[in-house]
Each structure stands twice: as C-alpha cells, then as structure tokens.
Design a protein that fits this description.
The complex is a heterodimer of chains A (about 325) and B (about 290). Chain A folds into two domains: about 180 residues, no CATH class; about 100 residues, Alpha-Beta Plaits (2-Layer Sandwich). Chain A has eleven helices and four strands. In chain B, the strands form two sheets. Chain B has a six-stranded mixed β-sheet, with helices on both faces. A four-stranded antiparallel β-sheet of chain B has the order 2-1-4-5, covered by helices on one side. The chains are: A alpha+beta (about 325), B alpha/beta (about 290).
Chain lengths: ~325, ~290
C-alpha cells in the first residue's frame, strides 16, 4: 500500500518502547467538546454547586465583617474612668492632669453627670432612660489613647487608675471586644462546619454528574481504551470537567452574592456603619480566589473519586 | 520537525541497553498460544489448554459454535481478559505479564473491529478514526493526512465530516475498520465484524479485510458464519471443546500441495459448495485476488 506516512507504529518499536507519558495536549479541547455535548447536565450541576457555595460565601461574608468589627473595637483606644459621687473636684483635676501626663494618653475629657445623661438620651430613643435624673449618672473621665498603644499597656494603665481612691471603676471595653471575639470564633466555627457541608455537597454533585457523564460516554471510553489511550489520557477530560464545574459553581456563587450584597448595602449601609462603627465590606479578593480555586480543586478530586473504578481494561 | 523528533525518539529507544537487533525475530510467529486456559466459571472452562500459532501476514478465520470462545480468544489478545494459565506470546512478549501501564502500548499495535462497530455516534467519521492517532500524540497535520488515507482505503473518502450516527450499518463498519487500520497495527482482530450486516454486505466487508491483509497485516477473523469460510480459501481454526483445531475449508485448499492438516471438522461444511452458489451477487472482488 502506498503510504505518505513517515512515522510508523511497527511492532519492533513497540517491543522496545516504554509507555509514553500521557499526552495531555488537547485535553482541554476534548473536555470542551464533551462539555458541549452534555451542556445541560453541566449547567444543572453548576447551578446546584453555586447554591451550595452561596451558603458558604454568605457565612464568609459575615465572618469577614465580624472580624472587621472586632478589630475596630479591639483598637478602640478608649477608656472610661467612673468617679465616685463624693469625689473632690480638686482631686479629680489632679487625677486628670496625672492621666494626661501618662505616656500613651492622647486626651482626657471630663464628663459631668448632666453631660452623660444628655449624651445617652441623644443616642437612645428609650423613654425610661430619658426620664432618669442627672444624679443617676456618674461623672467620668474619657481617656483616649494613642492608636499604637498595646492592649497590655492600656490594661496596665487602667489597673493603676482603678487603685486611686476617687475612682469608682474603669471601663476599658475589653469585655465588648471579647464578646465580639467569641462571636467571631463562633462564626468561624460555623463557617468551617458549613464548608464541610458544602464540600460534601460539591463532592456529591460533581461525582454524580461525572458518573452520569461516564455512563453516557461509556462507548467513547471503551474506544479510547481500545485504541491504546493511557489511563491518564482517558481520565484527564473528566478531571478538567469536574474542576470547571467546581470553579464555575464557586464563581457563580460569588457573583450572585455580590449582586445581593450590592442591593443590601445600598439600603442599610448607613445604619450598619452607625451600629457597628465600621463600613461593611464584600469578601476580600483573596477569599474569592481561594473559594474559586478550592471549588475547582474539590471538583477535580470529586471527579477523580468517581472515576476510581475506571479500570485500564 | 515533529516527525523527526518522533523518529529520533524511536531510535533512542532502539539503542537502549538490552535492545538488540535480532534478525531472527522477523521469522518468528506473530502470535503463539501455549496451553492457554480460561474460565469465567470454574465448572465451565472456555479454553482448555489451547495451543495455536499464527504466522506473520496470515489471514486466519477463527470459527466455532456460539460460546466456543472466539470472542474470549480475541479479548485475551488485547488484554480485556487475562489467561488463567498458559502463555500468549505476541511478538515474543507474554501478554499476560504486561503491566497495566503497558496495556495501552499493546493495544496501539492491535486493531480491533467489532460486530457492533463501537463508534461514538455524536462524533464525526473523521473524529472516530482520528482518535487512534490522537492518543499517540501525533501532530494534527499528520493525523488529517493519515485519516484521509484510511477513509479512502475503506471507500469513505470525503465522508469525514458526516456524523457517525447518520451512516448505514455497512458504512459504520467501514469507519470502524478505518479506525482499526489507521494506526498500521501489526495484527487486526475482527470479532464477528459481519454479524450485523446482510450477506452481500458481509462479503463486501470481507473483501475489504482481504485487501488490508494483502498490504501485509495479519488478520484474525472470528465468525460463526460458515458462508464466509467458503468464499475465500483461508486457514480456518475451529474452537471446539476449549481447544483450537486447524482445518482446511473454503472453495479452494489453502495451498494446492499441502494435505489437510486434520480430517474435516464437523463445524465446517463437508460438502462442497455449488459452483453457482453466489451467482447473481455483485461480490466485492479484492484487487489482489482478482486473478483467482
């Protein structure tokens, strides 16, 4: 037979040859061709995955903002020194000057009982509080610290002030910060739990989709194995498809959440900033990248898991 | 450039330690079954100590009753099954001892044609044939050239763009044959390739295999269709009771001078076919057999 072919696959070569490394060229195009053929199935799978990822992304969004609030309040740099009712004004003035001279203290402001009542009434709409007389409130010194002052130093200064006789008590807002920290820890734990649930959902959805795809392409797989495709060559497009599903599912979830966030932020931005003291933020870019890459990795692993019984024969 | 690289790689492989040129290798049988046992159920062995030798460039019909082990024999060859005992030497290498990683390399040297064609229906004719070369990582230009050539050989030149599912049964089988031969395999295994075709088309396809054989390819043709055995004078191996029995059959003896190896097997028609048995049929006449 006349042949224009210079490359031969003659038996002698086979006897001498070692198995080639998988030729991954065209894996993406084969995955694309297969994906196009089963696009409805893949679309459904990506939708299911995006629903799962939206839950995770929402949790991460809450945790991110909670962490921001905690950071803001842990660096509040403010302490309130409550004075005894019978404190001598001269002693108070002396104390004020002494605190003002302390390293790390920026300003010290005296708040009289009348001012304290006025501020509280202005911030709260509670009628009962407004009805309280000024005597119900303590005079205080509002101490502002420099921002770079360590928490330990603030605690140390607060401890020393607490021991002065005219001082009734010192509020460093550490408990508020601790409470936020505990809330954040709970949020992180919930997110981790949720990420496990989402991982399970991703594995289940991708593995089921891949098993269906494998069933639909049984002849194709058989043919590939018959003509001498290596195990890797046969599996590669399935892995790419699984990774694409996971990645696209996560990306779709981020887009959906961004849309919801933009709607919510437009309406409640001011209120949230007033309540929390910080502007709410969307997911940081590194979290988005990690989620998409994680989704892709999880998709590929799920796909590999579903193909584990695909034998060489 | 890519061709040169590929050839260079082959040469490097050939020069590896332990890879010596052996001129005697060319005269050795391409395939040897040595005392092969195979059973799917312990109480029903399919092959029981089968011995068979196939020379290079032979065209051999494998026949026998349903369940005799024709398909099993072929499946053992491309390692879809493994032997329970015995050896199958393909080009001197024991197939049963190949590692999983080596099985694809074995299959790249074997073309297989099935009764049910095994085409991917939503792929084009070109894609169905090209897959054999794509797994080898050959460049696209070369793949296109060789697929075009293979399609010409099976009479489907210019049909590369058609979807496989729109083809007739005979055309689908031709595509399957093109896929099997495009990689220039050392041996072609045909597992009842005419089973789904009408008699006329079956003989037509058989002629195609004859042409492929004439180009130097060893062909193992498993069939239970006795009619085909009588169309061409070829070596016939009957699988009976788990063993291979060499018989002569067909319209003419294998070689005029050679006596029958054994008495005619009951599976093969003993009475000669009527001379006018195929009168009126427009049979495909392989070019190399035109004078017969």
């Amino acid at each position: 037979m006349p042949s224009t072919v210079s490359i031969s696959t003659n038996p002698a070569i086979w006897v001498l040859s070692e198995p080639d490394e998988d030729n991954m060229n065209g894996t993406t195009s084969r995955a694309w061709r297969n994906g196009k053929a089963d696009w409805k199935m893949h679309l459904l799978s990506i939708f299911s995955l995006s629903v799962a990822f939206v839950c995770l992304a929402s949790a991460l969004l809450v945790v991110s903002n909670l962490d921001r609030v905690r950071q803001r309040w842990s660096r509040v740099g403010r302490t309130t020194v409550y004075l005894r009712d019978n404190a001598d004004p001269a002693q108070v003035q002396e104390l004020r000057e002494a605190i003002n001279r302390t390293a790390g203290v920026r300003t010290v402001r005296y708040v009289s009982p009348e001012e304290a009542r006025r501020e509280l009434v202005a911030e709260s709409s509670d009628g009962a509080l407004a009805a309280l007389p000024a005597q119900a409130f303590s005079a205080s010194l509002e101490v502002d610290f420099q921002e770079d002052l360590a928490d330990a130093d603030v605690s140390s200064i607060a401890g020393k002030i607490r021991s002065i006789p005219v001082v009734d008590g010192v509020e460093t807002y550490a408990r508020w910060s601790e409470r936020l920290g505990r809330l954040l820890d709970g949020g992180v734990a919930a997110s981790l739990l949720l990420s496990l649930v989402v991982s399970g959902a991703v594995i289940s959805v991708v593995a089921s989709t891949m098993r269906m795809a494998l069933e639909r392409r049984r002849v194709e797989v058989e043919v590939l194995q018959l003509v001498g495709a290596t195990h890797g060559y046969v599996r590669a497009p399935f892995l790419v498809e699984g990774a694409a599903q996971g990645g696209l599912g996560a990306a779709a979830a981020v887009l959906l959440l961004a849309l919801l966030y933009s709607i919510v932020r437009g309406r409640f931005d001011g209120e949230l900033a007033l309540i929390l003291g910080v502007e709410p933020i969307f997911l940081p870019w590194h979290v988005i990248v990690a989620m998409v890459l994680g989704g892709a990795l999880l998709g590929a692993l799920s796909s590999a898991f579903s193909l584990r019984r695909l034998s060489c024969a | 450039m890519a061709n040169e690289r590929q050839e260079a790689r082959f040469k490097v492989n050939a020069m590896r330690t332990g890879a010596r040129f052996d001129p005697a290798a060319a005269s050795r049988p391409i395939l040897t079954f040595e005392n092969v046992f195979k059973a799917y159920r312990a109480d029903q062995p399919v092959l029981r100590g089968m011995n068979l030798t196939i020379g290079r460039g032979e065209f051999v019909f494998i026949t026998g009753a349903s369940g005799a082990g024709k398909s099993t024999l072929l499946r053992l060859l491309y390692r879809a099954e493994t032997v329970d005992d015995g050896r199958i030497l393909f080009l001197g290498r024991d197939i049963a001892r190949l590692t999983n990683d080596s099985i694809p390399m074995l299959r790249r040297n074997i073309g297989v044609v099935f009764q049910d064609f095994k085409l991917v229906p939503h792929w084009t004719v070109f894609d169905n044939v090209a897959v054999t070369l794509e797994v080898l990582g050959l460049p696209g230009r070369l793949v296109r050239a060789r697929v075009g050539e293979a399609l010409e050989r099976v009479g489907l030149g210019g049909r590369g763009g058609d979807l496989a599912r729109v083809l007739s049964g005979g055309e689908q089988q031709r595509v399957a044959i093109a896929r099997a031969i495009v990689g220039e395999p050392a041996i072609l295994l045909c597992d009842e390739p005419t089973g789904n075709l009408d008699p006329l088309l079956a003989i037509d396809i058989l002629g195609l295999f004859e042409d492929i054989h004439a180009a130097g390819t060893t062909v193992l043709f498993a069939t239970h269709d006795r009619t085909l055995l009588e169309v061409r004078p070829r070596r016939v191996v009957v699988l009976d009771d788990g063993k291979a029995v060499d018989v002569q059959a067909g319209l003419a003896p294998m070689e005029a001078s050679s006596p029958p190896l054994r008495p005619p097997h009951p599976w093969v028609r003993e009475e000669p076919l009527q001379e006018n048995a195929f009168d009126g049929l427009d049979l495909y006449e392989p070019s190399h057999l035109g004078a017969e």
